[in-house]
Amino acid sequence: MVVVTPFWASIETDMPIELWRRLLPPRVTLAAGLELLIRPYHAYAIQKNSLETVRGAAAAMLERGADRVYLFNYMDSQTAMERAEDTKAVLNECGKLSTLAGKTRRHVATYTDTWGPDEASAALLPKSVGAGNWFALRIATGPKVSRAEVRLGCEGPAPAELRLNGVKCQ
Amino acid sequence: MHVWTADAAAGQPVVTVIDARAADAPLKVHWAEVEVLG
């Protein structure tokens, strides 16, 4: 088994699982490693995943080709989710797309907390958008989305317009 | 936190376009997420 995982500082919601699948022989089981912590960039306040954010990351990784979900630091003591009952739900729901189906999930833009020699460190956020400009970000959302909400934490005014897959949000 | 809803955001992955072309001041995004409603 190969477990693809960030180092420790945040769950990584955009790991290129499909590339790992292509690189590995079919006999190798491929697991997506999900960290307990979640943040969009390193200087952001440390916080823990919720049931909904784990569902989101698991759905995205399974849909991209992971055979398994590997939970790191989802313990029942010091390094635990905020609500103990959520740990049980994570264990029951987040191993298969079939058990995630129909449940609300959150897909959060996070960052890569480690990188190889000569590889640039990268984080999508924070991102400044000047008046008169725009930017786009891609968030893997697992199986096909039919209805969604977008949440942005911004400094300054709200964006004039926001679109999901070309659909103008209300 | 600002929240927007899209009722027909078909397909995936989701691309979120943040348009500040009509804004009169810069904005800085610190957090971005898509909640898929069950």
Annotation keywords:
heterodimer; A: 170 residues; 3-stranded parallel sheet; 4 helices; 20% helix; B: mainly beta
Helical run tally of chain A: 4
Q: Percent of residues of chain A in helical segments?
A: 10-25%
Flag low-confidence runs of chain B: none
Q: With helices defined by DSSP (H or I, 4 residues minimum), what is the helix count of chain B?
A: 0
Content of β-strand of chain B: over 45%
The gyration radius over C-alpha positions of chain A equals: 17 Å
- Give average pLDDT of chain B, whole number: 71
Side by side, the strands of the main sheet of chain A go: 1-2-3
For the record, give the distance between the C-alpha atoms at the N and C termini of chain A, rounded to a whole number: 44 Å
Poorly predicted ranges of chain A = none
Round the mean pLDDT of chain A to the nearest integer and report it.
Answer: 91
Helical content of chain B stands at under 10%
Structural class of chain B: mainly beta
Radius of gyration of chain B: 12 Å
Quaternary structure: heterodimer
The geometry of chain A reads as globular
Global morphology of chain B: elongated
* Strand segment count of chain A: 9
Description of the molecule:
The complex is a heterodimer of chains A (170) and B (38). Chain A contains four helices and nine strands. Chain A has helices at residues 17-23, 51-63, 84-93, 97-100, and strands at residues 2-4, 30-34, 68-71, 105-108, 127-129, 134-139, 148-155, 161-164, 167-168. Chain A has a three-stranded parallel beta sheet, with helices on one face. A two-stranded antiparallel ribbon of chain A has the order 8-9. In chain A, helix 1 (17-23) links the parallel strand 1 and strand 2. The relative contact order of chain A is 0.18. The mean pLDDT of chain B is 71. Classes of the chains: A alpha/beta (170), B mainly beta (38). The interface between A and B is large, with 62 and 38 residues. Strand 7 (148-155) of chain A pairs antiparallel with strand 3 of chain B, so a sheet runs across the interface.
